[in-house]
Write a structure and sequence with these properties.
heterodimer, A: 326 residues, MetI-like fold, 69% helix, B: alpha+beta, OB fold (Dihydrolipoamide Acetyltransferase, E2P), 2 domains, 6-stranded mixed sheet, 5-stranded antiparallel sheet, 9 helices, globular, binds adenosine-5'-triphosphate, binds magnesium ion
Chain lengths: 326, 335
């Protein structure tokens, strides 16, 4: 009763006080954001704008500043031949580019899919109580802690057709009839790259999912046990819905990473058309082939593809970056 | 409906024995309350009965059948947790129906009827579409009880279901649970609490636990009138029973003399024991006077209505002769 009679004056004073407080908070937030915005503008914004600009010019490595504007020429241009047929040229009709896009998408899809499934399994195991859990948790992170270049080299030796341990084991166990050049053969190159990436990144995925799992209260599993919910059903009806916010964030991190994959492929399968991704192709054009403008156009498209994917994913998946407070 | 029998039940966590050999029989349709100080093993004992915890040794029988190795869901029990343990991503309706949807041969319509009946019983019908986070603590607790009711259990287990509620809500929900017990009069209920008022008001019988052992089992009045030990005497009843040792006790041939505050009369000067008032509490309907009498803790006297004593006043009291409890040095009652 007392609160009801008190309510009107409080309500009247409410919005003004609140807006003052809000203003103060917004002002403070701006100041805190400023350093980060400046840093981002310098290290990400400016280079991005530069490479978008270069993609509309005929820039080459030794003539960056004398570059001339060519409009969309790097993306698409056409000429009419004497015979009357129209010939299209440029990035949008470049088979190499679309092969790289396809490779990248394939790589991102399979690597993230396996990393999610395996990461979930590893996280579920690590979330259980058992002796030595601390050590296992630390040990499982090792693949992720090793620098990519190092682990890629390591794997490239293990996959080596002459001296590699995998071929040696396969032969001894009778699984292989002859030694296979895993990374050099077109049919196996992508699989080899995927295996190494999954080996390396599953721990990271597991850790992100584990953090989500640990936010689920334990007592609801006891309630489920009394309700007689089968463990598999518990996973799909309780664990999965509750870990979903964390899982969605983890997946998007990984997909963004996978879409710009470079180092692993550059070291493990250089120059293989079967694995060449957008980043690898763009780098090749930028620095090896002296097609600076063309490479810039590829980098720009790569940026657009990732941006569109991210927006669609967040929109469709209703991803909550606050960790899904419940 | 089920009777439950515990035979020399023991439970250890690693090297620590928490339940040290409990023998207990809970009758069909009975409301049994476990009370005891914090850490005495009430929750553990309840979890052993539910099957959420494995029994280290001993036998647990439901209706004469051994259930030591039976899964919780097969025991015909429902449990209400102190923390509610509602599924946070399911609506109230889904929370209550989830267990039922897993049972074979239950139609949608039957499930709906059962959920709605339980919701009506607890007056949560209007919240069926909400998520638990959109409910108050008391409403959540009612949902948790509702979920247990829809399971149509033979045994209802409560682990301190009211401890997260405020005082008024606690009384209201306590009355609701008492009503529930009347309505479902053939369901056995076991209720854990450390609040002895809840124990006294709800229980058909109370089981007082201490340090992993049963101290005494009996109806509330049995425990109140004939406590088996100083421990039970001190634990049951509010305010706590006064214990007086020394001359006054040895005059009656006992080591300790126990007398409840409500069994002490104020007498004229020159008779009885004298004590100095150190504090008074007026509760309206009754009042407590705390007297300094050289005992370990001040002696509490309960008086009807308000009183006018002030600190420093000297008061003379006499215990009602037939209400005196005498205990020997081991804390056991003497007759
Ligand atoms: N899972 C466990 N592992 C180890 N020790 C435990 C475990 N569960 C309970 N204990 C110990 O068993 C003893 C009894 O615990 P229990 O939870 O049954 O007490 P309680 O009587 O319910 O107390 P409270 O009134 O505080 O809830 C405590 O000393 C506790 O530390
Ligand atoms: Mg407890």
């Amino acid at each position: 009763m007392a609160t009801e009679t008190m309510a009107p004056p409080v309500a009247a004073a409410g919005p003004r006080i609140k807006s003052e407080l809000m203003q103060q908070r917004v002002r403070a937030a701006r100041w805190f954001l400023l350093p980060m915005l400046i840093a981002l503008a310098v290290v990400a914004g400016w280079p991005l704008l530069r490479s978008i600009y270069f993609s509309f010019t005929d820039a080459s490595l030794n003539n960056l500043y004398g570059a001339e504007w060519v409009g969309f020429g790097n993306y698409l241009r056409w000429s009419v031949l004497e015979s009357g047929t129209v010939r299209y040229r440029g990035l949008l009709v470049d088979a190499n580019w679309w092969n790289a896009v396809w490779n990248t998408v394939r790589f991102a899809f399979w690597s993230v899919l396996w990393e999610t499934v395996l990461g979930m399994i590893v996280a579920l195991v690590l979330n259980a109580e058992f002796k030595g859990r601390g050590i296992v948790r630390a040990a499982i992170l090792i693949p992720w802690a090793i620098p990519t270049i190092v682990s890629a080299r390591m794997w490239s030796w293990m996959l080596n057709d002459q001296f590699g341990i995998l071929n040696d084991l396969g032969m001894r166990l009778g699984l292989l009839s002859q030694k296979v050049a895993w990374t050099a053969t077109a049919e196996t190159a992508m699989t080899a790259v995927l295996v190494v990436d999954i080996w390396k990144t599953t721990p990271f995925m597991a850790l992100l999912i584990l953090a989500g799992l640990q936010m689920i209260p334990k007592d609801i599993y006891e309630a489920a046990e009394i309700d007689g919910v089968h463990p598999i059903k518990q996973f799909f009806k309780i664990t999965l819905p509750l870990v979903r916010p964390a899982l969605m964030v983890a997946i998007i991190f990984r997909v963004l990473d996978a879409l710009r994959i470079f180092d692993l492929i550059y070291v493990l399968t250089p120059n293989s058309a079967a694995t060449k991704t957008m980043s690898v192709l763009a780098r090749e054009n930028l620095f090896d082939f002296d097609n600076f403008a063309y490479g810039s156009a590829q980098a720009t498209l790569l940026f657009l593809i990732i941006a569109i994917f991210t927006i669609v994913y967040i929109w469709l998946g209703k991803v909550n970056f606050d960790g899904g407070s419940r | 409906m089920a009777s439950i029998e515990l035979r020399n039940i023991r439970k250890s966590f690693g090297a620590v024995e928490v339940i040290k050999g409990v023998d207990l029989e809970v009758r069909k349709g009975e409301f049994m309350v476990f009370v005891g100080p914090s850490g005495c093993g009430k929750s553990t004992l309840l979890r052993l009965i539910s099957g959420l915890e494995d029994i280290t040794s001993g036998e647990m029988l439901f209706d004469g059948k051994l259930v030591n190795a039976l899964a919780p869901s097969k025991r015909g029990i429902a449990m209400v947790f102190q923390s509610y343990a509602l599924y946070p991503h399911m609506t109230v309706y889904e929370n209550m129906a989830f267990g039922l949807t897993l049972e074979k041969g239950k139609g949608k319509e039957e499930i709906r009827q059962r959920v709605e009946r339980a919701a009506d019983m607890l007056q949560i019908r209007q919240y069926l579409d909400r998520l638990p986070k959109q409910l108050s603590g008391g409403q959540r607790q009612r949902v948790a009880i509702g979920r247990a009711i829809t399971r149509d259990p033979k045994v209802f287990l409560f682990d301190e279901p009211l401890s997260n509620l405020d005082a008024a809500l606690r009384v209201a929900t306590r009355i609701e649970i008492a009503k529930l017990h009347e309505e479902m009069n053939n369901v056995t209920m076991i209720y854990v609490t450390h609040d002895q008022v809840e124990a006294m008001t709800l229980a058909d019988r109370i089981c007082v636990l201490r340090d992993g052992l049963v101290e005494q089992v009996g109806t509330p009045m049995e425990l109140y009138e004939h406590p088996n030990s100083v421990f039970v005497a001190g634990f049951i009843g509010s305010p706590k029973m006064n214990f007086i040792s020394g001359d006054k006790a040895s005059a009656l041939g006992a080591h300790t003399l126990g007398i409840r505050g409500e069994h002490i009369n104020i007498v004229p000067e020159g008779s009885g024991w004298s004590g100095k008032v150190i504090h008074t509490e007026n509760l309206g309907a009754d009042s407590y006077v705390y007297l300094e009498m050289g005992t370990e803790e001040p002696v509490v006297v309960r008086l009807d209505g308000a009183n006018e004593y002030k600190s420093g006043d000297v008061v003379h009291i006499a215990p009602m002769q037939d209400k005196i409890h005498l205990f020997d040095a081991a804390g056991k009652p003497m007759h």
